[in-house]
Amino acid sequence: LRWLTYTIETELLMGEIDESVSRITALVGAAKQYSQLDRAPFQTVDVHKLLDSTLVMLTAKIPPDVTVVKEYDHTLPDIPAYPAELNQVWTNLIDNALGAMGQRGTLTVRTERDGDQVAVTIGDTGVGIAPEIRPRIFEPFFTTKPVGEGTGLGLDISYRIVVNKHHGD
């Protein structure tokens, strides 16, 4: 009876180890995809893989009562891009969206075709940006966050990456 108990416990532990190894492998893969350290700076990439790796990297920052909804158009082609820099854009936008919602809401990550371009939308159920400050949100050092919480550089950097580097909008 003792032998049977040990055998069952061992099988359960092996299952947990196998599951843990799978999770670690997935996390390392996402970190590798996110960092782009072993890849050329400019390459053709799947925008969905970039978005997914960013979401994995931010998992710990997403509160339990925030629902993440992915609305991906899987017919989109791979795009020529600077993937590490696009990951920085996604990180800034998702971080801002999470901050706008607080501890609960819905974060929507959407991809779609916009003419001959790929459109990525990061949406949240926060209160939105007040109309009087919208013209300033891409200014360097402008932030709506309390002192010590934001540098005011996230959207400025994101703008430069999208507009100047990728000729997007």
Structure explained in plain terms:
15% of the residues are buried. A 3-stranded mixed sheet has the order 2-4-5. It is built from 4 helices and 5 strands; from the N terminus they run H-E-H-E-E-H-E-E-H. Helix 2 (47-57) packs across helix 3 and helix 3 (83-101) runs antiparallel to helix 4. The longest helix has 34 residues, at 2-35. With 169 residues, it is of the alpha+beta class. Strand 4 (104-114) and strand 5 form a beta hairpin.
Total beta strands: 5
User: Based on the structure, what is the oligomeric state of the protein chains?
Assistant: single chain
- The arrangement of helices and strands along the chain is HEHEEHEEH
Average pLDDT rating: 88
Task: Enumerate the spans where pLDDT stays under 50 for 5 or more consecutive residues.
Answer: none
How would the global form be characterised?
globular
Describe the protein's topology:
Layout: H1 2-35, E1 43-45, H2 47-57, E2 65-71, E3 79-81, H3 83-101, E4 104-114, E5 117-123, H4 154-165
Parallel strand pairs: 2-4
Antiparallel strand pairs: 1-3, 4-5
Quick overview:
This protein is an alpha+beta fold and 169 residues long. It contains four helices and five strands; from the N terminus they run αβαββαββα. Helices cover 45% and strands 18% of the residues.
Which keywords apply here?
single chain, 169 residues, alpha+beta, three-stranded mixed sheet, two-stranded antiparallel sheet, 5 strands, 18% strand, globular
